[in-house]
Hints:
Layout: E1 2-3, H1 14-20, H2 36-56, E2 63-66, H3 69-84, E3 91-95, H4 100-113, E4 116-120, H5 130-136, E5 141-147, H6 159-169, E6 173-176, E7 193-197, E8 208-212, H7 238-276, E9 280-282, E10 293-298, H8 303-312, E11 315-316, H9 332-336, H10 341-344, E12 347-351, H11 361-377
Parallel strand pairs: 1-11, 3-4, 3-5, 5-6, 6-7
Antiparallel strand pairs: 2-8, 7-8, 9-10, 10-12
Helix pairs in contact: 1-7, 2-7, 3-4, 5-6, 7-11, 8-11
Amino acid sequence: xxxxxxxxxxxxxxxxxxxxxxxxxxxxxxxxxxxxxxxxxxxxxxxxxxxxxxxxxxxxxxxxxxxxxxxxxxxxxxxxxxxxxxxxxxxxxxxxxxxxxxxxxxxxxxxxxxxxxxxxxxxxxxxxxxxxxxxxxxxxxxxxxxxxxxxxxxxxxxxxxxxxxxxxxxxxxxxxxxxxxxxxxxxxxxxxxxxxxxxxxxxxxxxxxxxxxxxxxxxxxxxxxxxxxxxxxxxxxxxxxxxxxxxxxxxxxxxxxxxxxxxxxxxxxxxxxxxxxxxxxxxxxxxxxxxxxxxxxxxxxxxxxxxxxxxxxxxxxxxxxxxxxxxxxxxxxxxxxxxxxxxxxxxxxxxxxxxxxxxxxxxxxxxxxxxxxxxxxx
Length: 378
């Protein structure tokens, strides 16, 4: 089996498992307890917070550990917007191609708090224009929330340009970096809040963080004992925090080499698929994209049927976001990019991890894709 769905989740790295093991066994204390057992856990939590902050270019006190990317995005969007209500800010800007955790949070704020939500358009590649962001900003805009890299088509946004626009207007910018962490530098984005998830990087599922600069008011969503400096109550997952910090540091240390190596393999795979499958069309920006993402439509087929044929040939891939799996509706991301609904339902996404592939793997995989498409059309 060849697993090509790393955008959905990745296996836990051995180094991460070893780093977190002590906090699942001997160092088991509650980090809020004021005795030696609890203080050992608190020390590990503080160290993990500093390490995550260093990779994200934030201060240690900015980091809030969460249960993953979805919670981090919910805390960013709901927490920052609700925190701005006292100042009369009742407007939120998000794009049409955001992860469900962003769009559903925006919908919640609209339905229950009367927040006005403006949706940024994207071009045919899924790119957001800084000028479009600027045109939607108002005096009462509380937040702009944008995915740094799209989880379906891999398009990378110009975060620096977006941050320049929002900073000039005095509006906080939140970047969902769940997909870009480990592949793109995150320490100089200029964002006011950044979300990451551990399971995309080789840490366990259920680990994540939101880093939000101290000057940005943040209303907590979870109330209780006041952990995480009052921003997220609940006993912290010390082992998960250590795992996230370890995975982030490993990915950052390997990033330059991994981007070059995986990017070359993915580029070869894309070229080979387009040559071998006349019906194939690449989705997303061909130049400004994550190095391990290759997403196609195969006109006249069913994406789900192609996936089944690929799995029969030992290739595991997906039709888009795992969070929308099982839906019969065409991908909102592809529709926003101007792709017709019938064509959008033929999409298949291949996402590569950091493992080294055999030299002939890209071309061999392309042939398996061609066989699978032919089998569906037969």
